[in-house]
Write a structure and sequence with these properties.
Elements lengths: L10 E2 L4 E12 L2 E11 L4 E6 L2 E6 L2 E3 L5 E5 L6 E8 L8
Antiparallel strand pairs: 1-8, 2-3, 3-4, 4-7, 5-6, 7-8
């Protein structure tokens, strides 16, 4: 079964936003599709979304991120390491 694709402005379980860069030529729901290496920013985590992409679906030559793909980084206030999944995405299109 497929997973909902992550697009620009998807949010992590900690409420942080995945800001991209997305693939400007690959849109889903009118928003750029996110791929491995997209930046994450917010009060709980600043880092990149890189773990658990879909290796069979590519956008701009990179694996596409989806719901449950992991973002890793650090807490901007404490510097503590943070790992959080992408938990919400505005586009609920399902990958095959």
């Amino acid at each position: 079964m497929g997973m909902p694709i992550a697009v620009m402005t998807a949010q992590t379980a900690t409420g942080d936003t995945v800001v991209g860069p997305g693939s400007p030529k690959v849109l889903c729901g009118g928003k750029p599709v996110l791929s491995i290496g997209a930046s994450v920013t917010g009060a709980a985590c600043v880092g990149t979304a890189a773990a658990n992409p879909n290796p069979k679906v590519l956008a701009g030559g990179k694996p596409v991120l989806h719901l449950t793909s992991q973002a890793t980084g650090s807490n901007p206030a404490t510097g503590a390491p943070v790992t959080t999944p992408i938990a919400q995405t505005p586009a609920m299109k399902v990958l095959a």
